[in-house]
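Recall the central idea of this unit: under ordinary conditions, the amino acid sequence of a chain determines the structure it adopts. In this exercise we apply that idea directly, starting from the sequence alone.
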Amino acid sequence: MAMKKKTACRKKTTSENKCASRSKKTKTESRQWIIADGGSWVEKKAPKTKKIVVDGKTYDIPVDKDGFVSESSLIMRFAQVDDGDRDDRTRSVNRDLDKTASKTLKLGDKIRPEEIAAWWAHPNESDIIGIDDENTQVFTTEGATRKSSLPYQRKIGIVGTPSERRQVRKALDECFTAGELKKLTADGSVYVFASDERKNLSGNASGYYSPSDGMIVIRKGATSGTIVHETVHRLRHKDTGRTGKFTSSKVNEHARAAKDNPERAHYLRAVEEAGTECETVARMSPFSMNGKRTSYYGALARDPDGARKLMAEDRKLLVGNADPDKKGLKGKKAVSSVEKNFTKTHISSYGYGGEAANKYGFAEHGCVKKTKARKRN
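Accordingly, the structure predicted from this sequence is:
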């Protein structure tokens, strides 16, 4: 079925930028962006691949349109610890990074699949300089502040400048417990990129989380609030112990609903984004790390100052204060506060495709209030 697209609306103000390409009735919901400096999760198309045979086994290596392998693909492959060992054991990222292998590869900017075929098949038998040798900057933990988190921080590859890597590490340490970072990296497939990659960044979106490959992309110049928001998406998705109506991931349920119930899919996306942003507001430590970011609150106010005022009011409800210099919540305290207070927050009225997170969510969850998606003036 052909997609029916709506033309992106005229840009009015920074907070009112609602540029989105929408599909009413398609088999799968198209990617949409609602708020200036907001983020989301996206379902990326399967990448183009090149088939390479090593020791009788065929590997599909992702390549770009010109047939080259990207740095991010190499990092992803290295972190796929459940594959690549000749004895089918789980590979250890930390053990591999501790010492440079006797066989190394030094590659140029343009990498052909044939050049890294043997490494791709068995990443623990050789090292690519700059990716998984002992001096790599991709997995350095500079910026991490807690000893207990280091084993998990080291499993997270970050492409970016030294200051961007430190920004990500610090945000993760300040806003998440070591136990939560363990859940984030349990399957070895979390990758945070402080990058100016624009391929899947639309409009003014400042970042996204991709459930299919674990990639988190952060636009250059984004505040640490964006890092926390996209990491919360990842944590909600990977923490199978979460059972709360507003704090558990809606990503998989949304994928099922998008096929035959667009209205339900819009509602689930609204809940996922509103719940993620609500938890972000509760977690930011200190609150000032948010900077001038308005995120999805931009849909609820006339201007950026109004959006940040609503965010501060939600922060006070969730944490007990909105002091810029004070720390937020993390771990079970953060999850509990969001689950308990979500229906009272401003962000719960955030809407997507005309469906508000609290439209019939309140009714479903035993509350009286029903609200339509709030329109911006």
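Residues 262-283 form the longest helix (22 residues).
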